Amino acid sequence: MLNEEAYTALSDYVASTGMPMMMLETFKPGLLVSTLQIIEFQKIGFTPQGVDMYFNSRAIGDAKSLGQLETAEEQIGFLASMGEGSESDFILMSLEDLDETEEMIAAWRGGDNGQLSELFIAEMAIVAPDLYASLLVNRNQAWIPQIEEMLTDGDTEFILVGAAHLVGDQGLLRLLEEKGYQITQL
Predict the structure, then answer these.
(1) Does residue 80 have a pLDDT over 90?
(2) How would DSSP label each residue in 127-165?
(3) Rounded to an integer, what distance in angstroms lies between the CA atom of residue 151 and that of residue 122?
(4) Distance between CA atoms of 24 and 67, rounded to whole angstroms?
(5) CB 95 within 8 A of CB 35
(6) pLDDT at 160 over 80
(7) Could you give the angle at the alpha carbon of 82 between the alpha carbons of 29 and 116, nearest 5°?
(8) How far is residue 25's CA from residue 172's CA, in Å, rounded to a whole number?
(9) How far apart are CA 92 and CA 43, in angstroms?
(10) φ and ψ at 167, to 5 degrees?
(11) Which of 11, 90, 135, 151 pairs with 141 at a CA distance of 20 to 30 A?
């Protein structure tokens, strides 16, 4: 499904990881990119457990109640359909993002929302507007009523989402500010 440029770029990247390309050739674009992201994160010292699993384990250990903004089936559906219809553009854009992984992590650790927006979503919004809308904008808008409900129930809430959902003009932080919430970065 990939054009020659995307297939060559992908083959070159995969070869640099030491993994045989034939292992990934049958993967859908979303699973392929997720696999490459895991490999990239492991190279720089992150564990496969991830932030979400860490906090999930902590919450269970502390007997905290758990909720979700969307079901596991919905998340799997987003992953499975990522890049469909624009596979080559999606792969090329994702390979660029993989090259910027360390910059993204530095921006995240430093709380630089402008840089995060530039690295995470600016190109996606231009190159793949349908993906940007389905992966970030539509989901963020669907989550706002749920988050607002949590903010008014009197309990202390901890909401964990991917960093790309927080930043930019359609990010959760901006959407909440537009509704009159005061956002303070810690």
Answers:
(1) no
(2) H-HHHHIIIIIHHHHHHHHHHHHHHTSSS-------GGG
(3) 29
(4) 34
(5) no
(6) yes
(7) 105
(8) 35
(9) 21
(10) -105, 165
(11) 90
- What is the average per-residue pLDDT within 153-158? 88
Amino acid in position 82: M
CA angle 90–43–54, rounded 5-degree value: 90
CA dist list (Å): 171 to 2, 70, 126, 133, 146: 30, 17, 16, 11, 15
d(CA 39, CA 29): 15
| Cα distance between residue 161 and residue 183, in whole Å | 16
Per-residue pLDDT at 17 exceeds 70: yes
Fill in the DSSP letter of residue 19.
Answer: -
52 token code pair: 């979400």
The more confident residue out of 93 and 172 is 172
Q: Is 7 exposed, middle or buried (0-12, 13-18, 19+ CB in 10 A)?
A: middle
Identify the residue whose tokens are 């996606």.
124
Q: What is the pTM of this model?
A: 0.85
CB 80 within 8 A of CB 31: yes
Given a contact cutoff of 8 angstroms between Cβ atoms, the answer to whether 108 and 182 are in contact is no
Euclidean distance between CA atoms 35 and 33, whole angstroms: 5
Q: Which of 50, 38, 171, 176 is nearest to 114 (CA)?
A: 171
